[in-house]
Amino acid sequence: MSSEITVAKVIEKLPSRFEPDAAKDLTVIYQFLLEDESDFYIEIDNQECSTFPGEHPDPSITLLMDADTFIQVVTGQQDGMSAFLKGQLRAEGNVMLATKLGKLFKKKS
């Protein structure tokens, strides 16, 4: 990708990179609270993925970080566990769902 990667572009591409087979029997809301960007959430239900702006009233897990950390983790430049251990990423709610997130999306389309 030659153009600059932004949070908005990542959010736009998430549904096309979704792996429905990895989401069998999974109904979950991943809330992303970004310190320096707009918040959004991912809803996964019936092996379908949708993204929405703002905050969900009852997310399954909330991931808090800045936009740079989000982009580095999504693009594979940084491992999510590494970001967590360095204090760049916090998780609230069902934190075990964070470990499934990487398996739900293809790295490249």
Automatic annotation (TrEMBL):
It comes from the Bacteria. PANTHER family: SCP2 STEROL-BINDING DOMAIN-CONTAINING PROTEIN 1, STEROL CARRIER PROTEIN 2 SCP-2 FAMILY PROTEIN. Residues 19-106 form the SCP2 domain. This is SCP2 sterol-binding domain-containing protein. It holds the Pfam family SCP2. It comes from Neptunomonas concharum. The lineage of its organism: Bacteria, Pseudomonadati, Pseudomonadota, Gammaproteobacteria, Oceanospirillales. InterPro entries: SCP2_sterol-bd_dom, SCP2_sterol-bd_dom_sf. GO terms for cellular component: cytosol.
